[in-house]
Amino acid sequence: MCTPRPILTAAALLALVQAGAAQEGYPLRLDVGTVPSQQELARFYAIPPDGRGLPPGKGTYAQGQTVYAQSCVACHGDKLQGIPTAGIGGDKLIGGRDTLSTEAPAKTVESYWPYATTVFDYVKRSMPFLAPGSLSDDEVYSVVAYILGEANILPKNASLDATSLPKVQMPNRDGFVPDPRPEVGLYR
Amino acid sequence: MVDPDGVAEYEEDVRREIQARIDAERLMLARRRQELEDCACKSGMFPHPGRRGVLFAAGSTLAAGMSAFLWPARAAERKAPAGAVWRDVPDDPTKIQGTPTADDGGYGSRSQFETEARWRYPTPTTLSSWTMSPLDKSEGILTPSGLHFERHHAGIPTIDPAKHFLFVHGLTERPKKFSMADLRRLPSVSRLHFIECSGNGLTEWRKPTLKTVQGTHGLISTSEWTGVQFSTLAREFGIKESATWALAEGADAAVMTRSIPLEKLLTDAIIAYGQNGEALRPEQGYPLRLILPGWEGNTHIKWLRRIELSDKPFMTREETSKYTDLLGSGKARQFSFTMEAKSVITFPSGEMKLPGPGFYEVTGLAWSGRGRIARVEVSADGGKSWKLAALQEPVLPICTTRFRFPWFWNGQPVVLQSRATDETGYIQPSMKQLVDIRGLAGPFGSVYHLNAIQSWAIASDGSVTNVHA
Question: Which residues are CB-contacts of B264 (< 8 A; sequence separation ≥ 6)?
Fold first, then answer.
């Protein structure tokens, strides 16, 4: 006795189609996610050494001295010497040139940081420590001019903007080498 | 001059810094010893109960403050350790009903008798600081999520996942914005990988400094991470021909950024939302973290909110002034991403005490950022001879591997070491080999990427100390 021929219900048909789709794998693009607005993307920045994305505005050493006194001195000290004590912990910002190959290397903006654009990016992004992102772009340009002035990298009458900042030559610009690991000396 | 911690040779600032670290570890040890004394488990081999009088070495400035800190707590009612709930202990648990089911609200906690905790490195501020994972009593290869080491540069942000998005833009065919719900719809993977901070062991370059394996090696942890592969996500936004790098950015107050070669992202990067079977912990990047298997911990951007494709690195603060490896020559290595093969014996390790001669199973962890561990050898004679340890399954790529080594201690002083070889054939170097190549740049050497063989000395009384051998 033969069984009645099964009738394909709509549900069974759908299941078959789905099984077929599974065997074919995922589509390459799944069209998940949405298109961000220009406004949403406009708030982001990260400034590479060529200065791309630096905002308009400018600031001077003199203005930066005021910004520093208001927003930076509590952690970094009145001589930019850093305050390593408990509860503070601001890094030393200047000095230390010619110490990198000694027993007591001092890695400061002056002695170690290879790009001035990094100083701008970092201050705008993360400083002051207890009010990050609170400085205006003019204030950031100013305080970078002040730090670089105190570091004797820029003259003390300097001003900085999107054009001049990427041109600043930092003392340790050529102090970095690519990672050579694995170190061939370990294979002798 | 009394110099119990061997810090006299350092300059004033450095000496203060190193002494603070040693003192902080000593405080942690003192707490743990007090707990052991209180629980009367004095015969254990783990951080051995000291006599109160010798806890505080002569000259330690901590002694006065610590006794005030510790002794009142002892008299007060017992409090449960972090992650536990204190319950009264019946004389006979077979004669009284236990805690009601689901009394914990549906989320469990550990036993009140378990005291392992992360230990915070005494940086000047708790907002930019790190904690070390307690490897000395670690079991197997996984780290409990609550004991995973931490490194925060601006505290732990509190982020509502409903308001969190991942933006991908720059050199894309079409910029995209992904909600957490979007990401959870995409094909996903779960993989076990370690994360190691490249600063793991930074105190140990010049001389043995911290006492415990938690102090010397505690900046490594292993989790199962679940999320979307970057390569899967990439097809949603499309990569422009000119893209070679990407910036990953976090949503913490540091707005942490690192530049990552696109090749790495397309090889094995995971945009992770899961850790050990549940959502990421807040301190591990909730709700979203970039996992870059085998690369230094700082690149595993937590609280990930943005990826910007680019044709060059951005030279952020973290990849120039930090996380670059200053050599003795004065030059510094940059973009030193890979965590190379490394291992450490976790039992027996520093501050433990073997009760006497006889059999012990030596055990520890080995890992490599370049793949699987192929071999771990153990030496019980300071590196003169080596014997193979057994590797416990599973042996997974870019994951901690547990090794075990049966050992009879004859009661004589010995130095125990482990040496890992990974599947590329790279052999974990000695400290001397590393220093011969890199030089010693200042009190903390190159700071980052110390993967040298660790030595533990066993004295004839069974006590275990951190040594350079």
Answer: B292, B295, B337
Residues 437-466 of B with CB under 8 A from A: 437, 441-443, 449
DSSP count for chain A of H helices, then E strands: 6, 3
Give contacts of A29 with chain B, Cβ < 8 Å: 235-236
Average pLDDT estimate for A90-101: 97
Give the residue from B294, B368, B307, B302 showing the smallest Cα distance to B337. B294
Q: Count Cα atoms within 13 angstroms, Cβ side, for B177.
A: 11
Flag residues of chain B having pLDDT under 50: 39-43, 48-77
* pLDDT of amino acid B65: 44
Task: Determine, for residues A100 and B255 on separate chains, whether the beta-carbon distance falls below 8 Å.
Answer: no
Note whether A53 contacts B: Cβ–Cβ < 8 A.
no
Average pLDDT, chain A: 91
Query: Residue B167 and residue A40: Cβ atoms within 8 Å?
Result: yes
Domain locations in chain A? 58-167
CA atoms within 13 A on the CB side of A164: 14
CATH fit for domain B342-467, picks 2.60.40.650, 1.20.120.450, 3.20.20.450, 3.90.550.10: 2.60.40.650
| Number of CB atoms found within 10 A of residue B428's CB | 27
Partnered with residue B310 across adjacent β-strands are B245
- The CATH number of the structural domain formed by B152-333 is 3.90.420.10
Least confident of A83-97, A108-122, B166-180, B321-335: A83-97
Amino acid at B233: L
pLDDT digits (tens, 9 = 90+) for B412-454: 999 999 999 999 999 999 999 999 999 999 899 999 999 999 9
Instruction: Give the residue among B118, B57, B134, B45 at the shortest CA–CA distance from B352.
Output: B45
Note whether A89 contacts B: Cβ–Cβ < 8 A: yes
CATH number for domain A58-167, candidates 3.40.190.100, 3.40.50.2300, 1.10.760.10, 3.40.50.880: 1.10.760.10
Chain B residues inside the 8 Å CB shell of A112:
321, 332
Tokens of B222: 């292993």
How many angstroms separate the CA of residue B304 from the nearest CA in chain A? Answer: 13
* Contacts with A113 from chain B: Cβ below 8 Å: 320-321
Domain boundaries, chain B: 1-86+107-115, 152-333, 342-467
Q: Report the 10 Å Cβ neighbour count for B80.
A: 16
Distance between CA atoms of residues B33 and B136, nearest Å: 14
Q: Please tell me the distance from the alpha carbon of residue B336 to that of residue B204, in angstroms, as a whole number.
A: 19
Alpha-carbon distance values, B465 to B184, B312, B349, B454 (Å): 47, 46, 7, 11
Closest CA to B32 of B14, B49, B44: B49
Could you read off the pLDDT of B331-366 as tens digits, one per residue? 999 999 999 999 999 999 999 999 999 999 999 999
Q: Is residue B403 a contact partner of residue B389, using CB atoms and an 8 Å limit?
A: yes
- How far is Cα of residue B194 from the mean position of the Cα atoms in its chain? 9
Q: How many residues does chain B have?
A: 469
- At residue B130, φ and ψ (nearest 5 deg) are -150, 160
Nearest CB to B320; choose among A47, A118, A183:
A118
Closest residue in B to A26 (Cα–Cα): B187
Q: What is the mean pLDDT of residues A102-118?
A: 97
What's the ipTM?
0.89
